[in-house]
Write a structure and sequence with these properties.
heterodimer, A: 253 residues, mainly alpha, Four Helix Bundle (Hemerythrin (Met), subunit A), Arc Repressor Mutant, subunit A, B: alpha+beta, 6 strands, globular
Chain lengths: 253, 143
C-alpha cells in the first residue's frame, strides 16, 4: 500500500500548507486548484455511481466537483485521511442534486401524480410495516393495478433524463482518460477496502448503506434492527475508526 | 450487442430465468442493473431489496468488466427461485484476477447481497471469471 500512503502523506503536507496561507495570498488559489485537480478522479468515480438515474455523466461530474471543492475547503489536515472526509462530502452533494432537481423528461402529468402518490404510499407503508413495502403491497394499499405501480416505479427511476446521443457522444474510450481514472481508483479502493473488511458485519453494513446506498439513519436503523440513536453512535465510532486507521497508515507509509 | 433469452419454465411468481449477453464494456452495465431491478420488482421484492440488488449487480458487473478481454462478452444469467434470485455473471480474461482482490468492491457486494461466491478457472487461451450472487426479497427473508 505504498502508493496511497505516499499520496496521503503528500496530501497532508499540502493541506497543512493550505491552512497556513492567507486568504488573499495568490499561492493559496494555486494550491487549492491543484488539490482539487489531483482528486478529480475521486469525484469522477463517485459521479459514475449515480449515473444509473439516467443523468448525464458530465453534469454529475460537475456536481461531484462542487462537493470536492467543498471538501478541500473544509478539510482539516489533522483529521487524518482526506478520502474519509471527501467521499461522504461528495456523495452528499450528489444526493442533494437529485433531491433538488425536478423532472428532466416530460412525463405525462398523470404519471407524475402517480409518482407522488406512490412516494406517499411508500412512506405510510414503511411506517406501518417497519420495512420497505413490496410493489404488491403498494398496489393493494393504493387500490391500483400492479402494472401501474411497476410503471410508476420505473418512471421514478428515470426522473432524470438522458440524451439519446449521450452514449454516442461519450464512448467509454479515451475522452475521460479512463486508464488514469482506474489507476487512481485502485488507490482509493486499496486504502479503504481492507479497513472495511475488518469491520464487524453490522458496522460494515451500516457504512455501505449510508455512503453507497445513501439511506437515512432512520432507514438504516429499521433495516439493521437497532435504534436510530445507535446507528448514529455506530456511524460516528466507525468513521472515527476508519479515519484513525487511514491516518496511521499515512504516518506509517 | 445484446441478446436476451428466456427460459420456458415459469415459476410461482411467473418470472422466468433470463440470460443476457452484452459486450464486456462498462457502458453496458446500466442495462444489466435495470434488468435486475425490473426482474426483482416483478418478483415482488421490497423496494429496499430492489435497490440493493440493482447496486449489487452494478458492482459485480463493474468488477468483471474491468478484467474482461477486449471485444468479448459478459454473460449474465438471472435465475429466479421461489424466495430469492440468483445472478450469475461471467467474463473471459487474460489474467486470473479474482474479483475479491478489489477489496472495496467486494465489501460493497457482500454487504448488499445475501451471499456472493466467485470462481476463476483456466480455459483455452485465458481464464473464465465468475461471480454469483444471491439476493432475497426483503430483510426478513435473510438467513
Amino acid at each position: 500500500m505504498n502508493a496511497p500512503a505516499d499520496r496521503g502523506d503528500r496530501d497532508v503536507d499540502r493541506f497543512r500548507a493550505l491552512a497556513e496561507l492567507d486568504g488573499d495570498d495568490p499561492r493559496r488559489a494555486v494550491l487549492r486548484g491543484d488539490l482539487v485537480a489531483d482528486h478529480m478522479d475521486l469525484a469522477r468515480n463517485l459521479a459514475r455511481k449515480f449515473d444509473r438515474r439516467g443523468d448525464q455523466l458530465e453534469d454529475l461530474i460537475q456536481v461531484a466537483t462542487i462537493g470536492l471543492i467543498k471538501a478541500v475547503d473544509r478539510f482539516e489536515a489533522d483529521r487524518g485521511n482526506f478520502y474519509a472526509f471527501a467521499i461522504p462530502t461528495i456523495m452528499g452533494e450528489l444526493r442533494r442534486h437529485f433531491r433538488d432537481t425536478g423532472w428532466a423528461v416530460r412525463v405525462p402529468r398523470q404519471l407524475k401524480e402517480l409518482h407522488v402518490t406512490i412516494a406517499a404510499g411508500r412512506n405510510e407503508l414503511s411506517q406501518k410495516l417497519g420495512r420497505a413495502p413490496k410493489p404488491s403491497e403498494l398496489a393493494e394499499h393504493l387500490g391500483l393495478p400492479r402494472e401501474q405501480v411497476y410503471e410508476a416505479l420505473v418512471a421514478s427511476a428515470a426522473k432524470q433524463g438522458t440524451s439519446l446521443d449521450a452514449r454516442l457522444a461519450e464512448p467509454s474510450g479515451d475522452r475521460f482518460g479512463y486508464e488514469d481514472e482506474r489507476l487512481a481508483e485502485v488507490d482509493n479502493r486499496r486504502a479503504l477496502g481492507p479497513l472495511l473488511a475488518e469491520l464487524p458485519e453490522r458496522e460494515r453494513k451500516i457504512i455501505v448503506l449510508r455512503f453507497f446506498r445513501g439511506l437515512s439513519q432512520a432507514d438504516i436503523a429499521r433495516r439493521v434492527g437497532v435504534s436510530q440513536m445507535q446507528v448514529s453512535r455506530l456511524l460516528a465510532k466507525t468513521l472515527e475508526r476508519l479515519r484513525a486507521a487511514l491516518g496511521e497508515d499515512t504516518l506509517a507509509g | 450487442m445484446s441478446e436476451v433469452e428466456t427460459s420456458p419454465v415459469a415459476r410461482a411468481h411467473g418470472v422466468r430465468a433470463v440470460e443476457v449477453r452484452v459486450s464486456a464494456d462498462a457502458e453496458q452495465v446500466p442495462l444489466l442493473r435495470s434488468f435486475a431491478a425490473d426482474i426483482a420488482m416483478r418478483m415482488d421484492f421490497d423496494l429496499d431489496a430492489i435497490e440493493d440488488l440493482r447496486m449489487a449487480v452494478d458492482e459485480a458487473c463493474s468488477l468483471l468488466v474491468r478484467s474482461a478481454l477486449p471485444d468479448t462478452s459478459l454473460h449474465c444469467r438471472f435465475e429466479p427461485e421461489d424466495h430469492a434470485i440468483r445472478v450469475n455473471v461471467v467474463v473471459d480474461a487474460d489474467r486470473p484476477a479474482a474479483p475479491s482482490s478489489d477489496p472495496m468492491g467486494w465489501q460493497i457486494l457482500t454487504a448488499l447481497a445475501e451471499s456472493v461466491t466467485e470462481s476463476v478457472e483456466a480455459v483455452d487461451g485465458g481464464h473464465r471469471i465468475r461471480v454469483e450472487l444471491r439476493a432475497v426479497p426483503g430483510e426478513t427473508d435473510r438467513r
